[in-house]
Amino acid sequence: MSFVVIIPARYGSTRFPGKPLALIKGKPMIQHVYERALEAGADDVIVATDDQRIGDIVESFGGKVCYTANNHESGTERIAEVLTKLNIDDNTTVVNVQGDEPFIPPENIQQVAQNLNESAMQMATLCFPISQRSDIDNANVVKVVFAQNGKALYFSRAPIPFDRNWVQNTQHMQANNYFRHVGIYAYNAGFIHKYITLAPSAYETIESLEQLRVLYHGYDIHVEQAHAAPPHGVDTPEDLARLNA
Fold first, then answer.
1. Is 226 helix (H, G, I), strand (E, B) or coil?
2. Is the pLDDT of residue 173 over 80?
3. What's the mean pLDDT in 69-78?
4. Which neighbouring-strand residues pair with 179?
5. Which of 223, 227, 192 is nearest to 40 (CA)?
6. What pLDDT, on the 0 to 100 scale, is given for residue 169?
């Protein structure tokens, strides 16, 4: 199976400035992500960044960098610029691996690429069951609900589905009803170019979730439970401290 991995990485994160350069076991986070992509068997791995500091670090460990503008609203928009600059064919399968997923299993990268090729949907992504009540209430943990055929119905930072019989502040949870979104996408290069022509929706703006633009405009996203349990990504310095511990 042929696919390329593009890793959007920006320096100016609101919650964690300089996050791609943060050290995990003495190695920059972006290097961990890059190495997971290589282990997945990608034909090519490219870091898309707007910052020289990130680019210098990537080149120092032998990685490939493509510099992009600093005004992109999402990782997919940043990837679209890379596709144009590098003249990547529209039929190429592209996997967007977030730059704050240093321990994402390589199997998950392979899985999402394969799911895109086997489904008739425009995008593919992954999820994983939530086992802790605190994750459901955590706005940094994006939740997803999907249909029997894997078609995404909605993504939200709020608890979805909402259990009206749930007694607050208890540990009660109905098994297998809550899934967190794993921050990885697969799509063909041609659809990425289509994506950036679509107007952002109010839902995308409210939730700050770029994938809601796809659903709003009537396109489909395939969701499947990740075969390998993915660790949480790094959203805050506290997450980094937990991972290092």
1. coil
2. no
3. 90
4. 129
5. 227
6. 46
Ordered domains of the chain (ranges, CATH): 4-244 (3.90.550.10)
Q: Is the peptide bond before 161 cis (omega within 30 degrees of 0)?
A: yes
Residue 160 CA to residue 178 CA, distance in Å, equals 7
**Contact call for residues 48 and 68 (beta carbons, < 8 A):** yes
Residue recorded with tokens 């895109």? 116
Strand partners, 9: 49
CB 42 within 8 A of CB 80: no
Neighbours of 173 (CB within 10 A): 15
Would you report the helix, strand and coil content of the chain in percent, each value rounded to 5? 30, 25, 45
Give the model's confidence band at 176: pLDDT under 50 very low, under 70 low, under 90 confident, else very high.
low
Chain segment 85-115, per-residue pLDDT in tens? 999 999 999 999 998 889 999 999 999 999 9
Q: At what angle do helices 106-118 and 29-39 cross, to 10 degrees?
A: 50
Per the DSSP assignment, residues forming a β-bridge with 129 are: 179
pLDDT at 166 (0 to 100): 65
Report how far Cα 136 is from the mean position of its chain's Cα atoms: 18
3-class SS of residue 182? strand
* Euclidean distance between CA atoms 141 and 225, whole angstroms: 16
**CB hemisphere CA count around 56 (13 angstroms):** 5
